[in-house]
Structures are given as C-alpha cells and as structure tokens.
Design goal:
It is built from no helices and eleven strands. The protein is mostly beta strands and 127 residues long. It has strands at residues 4-7, 10-13, 18-24, 34-39, 46-51, 58-60, 68-73, 78-83, 92-99, 114-117, 121-126. The strands form two sheets. Strands 2, 4, 5, 6, 9, 10 and 11 form a seven-stranded mixed sheet that branches. Strands 1-3-8-7 form a four-stranded antiparallel sheet, with no helix packed on it. β5 (46-51) and β6 (58-60) form a beta hairpin.
Length: 127
C-alpha cells in the first residue's frame, strides 16, 4: 500500500511564503516522478508542478513560475513545494501525487497520469 502524507499548509498573508511537504511510504520513491496539484472551491483540480525521480527535471504551470519551487529529498522519501510571493488566487487544497511510470522521461501534467494521491493540505492566502 502506497501512502502519501502532506503537511505544511496554513493561513498566510499575500506576499508571504509556505513550504509544503509530502512523504511517501515506499522505498521505490526514487523511481517515480512526483507532482503537486491544487483545487480551489468550485474549480477543477489543477496541475501545479512536477519533478523527475532524480530531481533534476522540473515543470511548472505558468501561473506559479518564478514563485514556486518543487524539489525532493530521496533519502527522506519526501517531495517539497516552496511557495513564495503567494497570491490570494493561490488559495486551494494542495495535493501531492505519484506519477505513473513514463518511459520517455517527460513529466506528466494530467491528473489521470498520477496513480496515488495524498489527502490534501489547505493553503489559504489572505489580503
């Protein structure tokens, strides 16, 4: 059984920062790319960022480029999302997810291409 546990959400003022963490309960963590998604009330789940198994390659949705950084520590089976210059529109429940295997090395952005999900952590950005 693969389990993902997120932490680090909370309430922050616009312009502030938060770090989200996601720990996965499998020793094969290094094999899989990982992603972060978010879902705001009344909206569909949205891709935010992804990182390759090695941590060398990353990809971001345009709205967070230059503000968010995804990284991973394979020794700790943990992936991070550092969020800076937060905006009110970043308010959402944030989910980490494990990517399905991808033989060509590209990073997936579709939710259906991720097979295990965490329970989500709330991020609220106030004015």
């Amino acid at each position: 059984q693969v389990q993902l546990v997120e932490s680090g959400g909370g309430l922050v003022q616009a312009g502030g920062s938060l770090r989200l963490s996601c720990t996965i309960s499998r020793r094969t963590f290094i094999t899989y790319a990982m992603g972060w998604f978010r879902q705001a009330p009344g909206k569909e789940r949205e891709f935010v960022a992804a990182v390759s198994g090695s941590g060398r390659d990353t990809y971001y949705v345009d709205s967070v480029k230059g503000r968010f950084t995804i990284s991973r520590d394979n020794a700790k089976n943990t992936v991070y999302l550092d969020m800076n210059s937060l905006k009110v529109e970043d308010t959402a429940v944030y989910y980490c997810a494990r990517s399905r295997p991808n033989t060509d090395g590209s990073l997936y952005t579709g939710a259906q291409q991720y097979d295990y999900w965490g329970q989500g952590t709330q991020v609220t950005v106030s004015t």
